[in-house]
Amino acid sequence: MRSRHFAGYLFASPWVLTFLIFWLFPLLYSLCLGFTDYRLLKPTYNWVGFSNFAALFSDRAFLESLKNTFIFVIGTIPFTTAIALFLALLIEKKFPGRTLFRSGFFMPSITAMVVIALIFTNLYSRGGYIYLMAEMLGLSPPENGFLLSSKTALFSVMAMDIWMSVGYYMLLFLAGLKSIPGELYEAAEVAGAGTLRKFFSITLPLLKPVTLFIIVINTIKSFQVFVEIFVMTKGKYGSSTAVYFIYETGLNRFEFGHASAAAYILFLIIAVFSIVQFGLLRQRGIR
Amino acid sequence: MKAIKYFILSLILIVMVFPLVWMFRVSLLPADVGLSFEGFISEAFTLTIYYDIISSGNMVKYFINSTVVGMAVTAGNILFCFMVGYALSRYRFIGKNLWFYSVIFVLMIPVHIMIIPLYLLIFKLGFYDTYGALILPFLVNPIGIFLVKQYIDTLPPSMEEAARIDGAGELRILFRVVMPLCKPALAVLAIQVFLTNWNSFLFPFILTSSESVRTLPVGLALYQGHQAIDWPHLMAGSALAVIPVLLIFLFFQRQIVSGITAGAIKQ
Q1: Residue range of the domain that includes B183
Q2: Which of A1, A22, A29 has the most B C-beta neighbours within 10 Å, making it the best mutation to test the interface with B?
Q3: Which chain B positions have a beta carbon within 8 Å of A246's beta carbon?
Q4: CA A9 to CA B106: how far, in whole Å?
Q5: Is there a domain that residue B155 lies in?
């Protein structure tokens, strides 16, 4: 029995070490940094209390990046969720070619974000395909392309993000649809319910847990949008987001204390959603 | 009705795959040609650009770096996630619940919080700008542990007990008895880890600086920074990043889909 205790520890040790060194320590370290004026090339640093946090709340660049992050979250998630559900309903039942459509819709989700962002940088640029299409439709796209105008830069990145992630959430919706017992629909049919009635009285209510879950994980992900901003706009033209601000402050200007404080503010915002997520995970039977 | 459905589906399919088709098309242009609506079909299809990026420049180097790092991280995750998942599923030891909750905890930590401290830690450990920075922190991941634990929870312990009665040691039971039973879960895990690692940008970007250890996504993102954007070369490099993913998708679609639906806990 003793040796089995030992074996248990031994087998769990890779995680224990990784957790302590690469997760717990950095997490606490950056919390401490948030209360210091630590920056590169400065031999000593001082405790400055909450002054990093106070400074951030009057820092226009930070507030704007936070505002953009909220715009990003609120502006993408309803569309992503609705379109993903629509796609899932379209290909729910078996029909010839179903696998082809499912794979095609899903393809962007497993492609590297950097690659997608590069392709769309091309498509959005002056003379790019999307630009030309907008012209053909009689819209007047910004002169230098969609990403070089503060009117359209952020929204263009958001549109790409929706396009990219609907396939992923479609798969989750499909799994949710699969778990609805067929007898419910049969019973509803016997009772004379039409397609719409069945959708609103059976499908939608029973998809509520999956939908909630999808919205929560997508919210957490979207609050951290960074790669596409880095590749497509470098945070210019009113498109800087919170994580882009953290990157710029911390790793371009090397103001580690300031950046850590910003990271923790975002962390607290996300924590609200993480707590909901934890509750949902528990419901799904995690002990 | 059916025709309408297929029409809508086909339309959506075109919207979803066109950008990737576009990427391949641009990468197959002759080097000195600009892009235009008409050129999509009328321009020649050549492999000139591919010869170019393979014979000169750093794309091949980035590709090899991505492969090496991807393989190492995947191998580490198969071994370690399996060990840890097994320990958490089968053994009783002091603090076990605590370690299990640490897995859930990390699962829910938004990664942006790690950018600054991990950068500083890797720097101080002396791993900055080495393969070590790209591999060591990522050798075991909470989703993988979780996946394996859930899977082993569903296996009956009778085989292990029989082996134990026969006098087999714990290590032997782990690798000879349990591991073969876990193959389906480990396949899902391996594919998920490899794809995630292959596509990842954030940490490889912040933890390295020189071209010699740069991975493909980082190389591509920074390539853009030079002079005027050279789209054919950039799209050919992007194709190098996409082709392995397409192949994996072609052969392991079932594992990818089940990995996503089973492990849909965190992005």
Answers
A1: 58-262
A2: A22
A3: 112, 115-116
A4: 19
A5: yes
Q: Where are the domains of chain A?
A: 76-283
Q: Do A263 and B108 make contact, defined as CB atoms within 8 angstroms?
A: no
- On whether the CB atoms of residues A52 and A138 are closer than 8 A, the answer is no
Superfamily of domain A76-283 in CATH is MetI-like (1.10.3720.10)
No. of H helices and E strands in chain A? 15, 0
Q: Which of B88, B205, B224 sits opposite A118 (nearest CB)?
A: B224
Q: How near does any CA of chain A get to the CA of B48, in Å? A: 20
ipTM value, please give it: 0.91
- Can you name the residues that pair with B211 across neighbouring β-strands? none
- Give yes or no for a contact between A194 and A254, defined as CB atoms under 8 angstroms apart: no
pTM, two decimals, is: 0.91
Q: Which residues pair with A125 in a beta bridge?
A: A145
Query: Mind listing the pLDDT tens digit for each residue in B10-63?
Result: 999 999 999 999 999 888 888 766 666 666 777 778 888 888 888 888 889 999
Residue of B29, B112, B242, B254 to mutate, interface with A, max A Cβ within 10 Å? B112
Residue B33 structure tokens? 């040609």
As for how many domains chain B has, the answer is: 1
